[in-house]
Amino acid sequence: MLANLLKGAAAAAALAISAAAPARAVDLQFYFPVAVGGGAAETIQALTDEYMQLNPDVKIDAVYAGSYQDTITKVITAARGGNAPQLSVALSVDMFTLIDEGLILPFDDFIKTEEDKAWLNSFYPAFMENSQTGGKTYGIPFQRSTPVLYWNKAAFAAAGLDPETPPATWDEMVEMGKTLTRRDANGNVTQWGVRIPTSGFPYWLFQGLTTQNDAILANADGNETNFDDPRVVEALQYLVDLSTRHEIMEPGIVEWGATPKAFFEGQAAMMWTTTGNLTNVRANAPFDFGVAMLPANKRRGAPTGGGNFYLFDGSSEEQLAEAVDFIKWITGPEQSAKWTMATGYVAPRPATWDTETMKAYAADFPYVLVARDQLDHAVAELSTYQNQRITQIFNDALAAAITGQKDAATALAEAQAQADAILAAYR
């Protein structure tokens, strides 16, 4: 009898100790690319710290992995070594690569409630095109963008153009570009009409031209490209002609990273670059500037771009569930508003734009709405299986035409043949 009482007391004491013990801490590792100016690292760290304050049993180690390319390389290396992070932001176009490597999990497996389903369905459809395949969702839009046109209003006024009216068509961009291109007494160009970067992410800005010419570069299954479509050839010839025929853009390869600085210093009156540079331009342009949708040809159009959240296989269910909770929180309206205001990236859910915070910001700085509104005309960024190989082939073809090594049709036909040889295995 006494032994039974002692056993009961011991069990009760153990139960009391167990109930009083704090929940076991959950450790998460989060890889994040820092590739564009605008205080991204500071903002993402502040948001991560805020989440940990709200959830003291969660510890998140945010690893700033460098460029997008650096990040995907480090993530894949870590995952292959059995040390994958629980979550990472990587390019939306890396989805097929990560699936092919067997590294990521669909978010659908963690969607349990009606509230969860509503959240998953709350993102802009244009961003979900690079986030879903085979009926499953593998990426959650976060650091998303489209390219937009920036113009120097002072340069427009000095050239006798209406500073409030940017070019709306390809033809208008050429005509305005001719007026804006300035030369000194020796004939040297001191200001180019337009600057469209052709390094770094050349296919992405070029995809603005192909979309405007009503061409789609790849199918939704990621296993077929259309590089030799006559409309793609025509778009590439237009890009080449900006330098060789119209003489409104610097000849040769135009550097991506140097473009904002060239714009600030008056070396180009217009530039195409990511809306992710919007906050950077606002802070550093020494003149009044404008932001507009990319000019149209057969239609308006631009590719989406930027990064998604991914979940990586190899972690505990508890860690993955917590990672999903963090992603749900950081894509929430108020958190997303902070991110957009700090960087210029497009808030990926309409709910963010409905907050009083974003309404006030947009009222003060209406240009933040341009990329959002351009989503009505946007298409998925070029994304295929073996994506890095395919985009490198395509980028090389663009460079060959831009530098005069090959004509546009030949360069693109060769690129298509190489892409076909690689992607045939995925059909």
TrEMBL record:
Its main location: periplasm. InterPro entries: Bact_solute-bd_prot1, SBP. Pfam families: SBP_bac_8. It is found in: Periplasm. GO terms for cellular component: periplasmic space. The keyword Signal applies. Residues 1-25 form the signal peptide. Keywords: Signal. It comes from the Bacteria. Belongs to the bacterial solute-binding protein 1 family. This is ABC transporter substrate-binding protein.
